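Recap from last week: sequence in, structure out.
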Amino acid sequence: MIGNEGATPDQGGGVLNLLVSNPDRLEQELCEKIGDAGFPCVGAKSALARGMLKVLACHSLISAWDDIRIHRELMAWAAEYRKDPTGLRSFAVVFEGPDDLDEAAFETAMWERIQSFADKDHWLGQPYDDRVSPDPDDPHFSLSFGREAFFVVGLHPRASRPARRFAHPALIFNLHDQFERLREEGRYERMREAILERDRELAGSINPMLARHGDSSEARQYSGRPVDEDWRCPFRDPRAQ
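Predicted structure tokens:
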């Protein structure tokens, strides 16, 4: 397992990755992507506007170098949410590279990182959020880190959907519970319809992979790559055994 050699403590007690040449630039580019008038996700826009978007700059999507650091931040993000579960928020991991992965290669690398985070969650004795399923074939599947369920949105330079196209590979983690709260408040469907309409305006069509939680497994949506009915998720959480 790779540790934090080549890294140094930051002022907040975390770890800065010295392999990332310009972490501030990566954060700025993502904020500009989300803040662009054409970007369809109004939830991410709300998180950005309210200062509830946290961005972690990392080295490479195809490397395990930052996996411990990312998982630690996911656990902290989950704990902070439990203390104050108000408002929309997102945790984004932006990787400096590689920038030449096609959709299939991005999907493979994305699931390798996610598998690593899940293995660490299991090793630390974190229980799976029992409001969701750990089985990626189950329509009620979601990831779980730090006892909270997460949905992931992947971005990368060669994405076929314009909304998923970004200069660097990125994984945006959204808490499942915040969407359940929106449903309880009667706000979820309005937000979903707004996102779908904005996506149609941007791409000329609605993303065919989008589905409501419980209708089909959300694992099919994470990478942004169109997949058919025969697609099988490579992820297996050790806590599902």
